[in-house]
Amino acid sequence: MDTIETIRYADPTARASTPLRGGFVNRLVVVLGSVASQIDAMLERRRSRLALLEMTDEQLKDIGVSRCDAHREGIRPMWERSLP
After folding, report:
1. Which helix (H) or strand (E) is 3 found in, with range?
2. Are the beta carbons of 71 and 53 closer than 8 angstroms?
3. b/e map of 6-42 (b: 16 or more CB within 10 Å)?
4. Fewest C-beta in 10 Å: which of 4, 42, 58, 84?
5. How do residues 2-45 score in pLDDT, each as one tens digit?
């Protein structure tokens, strides 16, 4: 009976400090941070592509991009990366 009482009333914070649980939380934080940075990168690509679509012919000429190329890049989904 002593063993059952010990298990039942064990310190609940002792479990949280085990390396397995701490490692999981650390990995989760890293994964969530990575997902957030990927989403941020996709949104930045979308903003850039929308800006390309709004440029005038003179502005496109200044940066060396044709209207056709700007349109082709501007309509791509935000999750697709640009070609090098």
Report:
1. helix 2-8
2. yes
3. eeeeeeeeeeeeeeeeeeeeeeeeeeeeeeeeeeeee
4. 84
5. 555 555 555 555 555 555 567 888 999 999 999 999 999 999 99
Total Cβ atoms within 10 A of residue 44 = 11
- Token pair for 35: 């997902």
Rounded Cα distance, 46 and 43, in Å: 5
Residue 70: count other Cβ atoms within 10 Å of its Cβ.
Answer: 20
The DSSP secondary structure of 5-73, one letter per residue, reads: HHHHT--HHHHHTSHHHHHHHHHHHHHHHHHHHHHHHHHHHHHHHHHHHH--HHHHHHHT--HHHHHHH
What are the structure tokens assigned to 72, written together?
Answer: 């082709």
Where in the chain are the domains?
41-84
pLDDT of residue 23: 85
Measured from the Cβ of residue 52, the count of other Cβ atoms closer than 10 Å reads 20
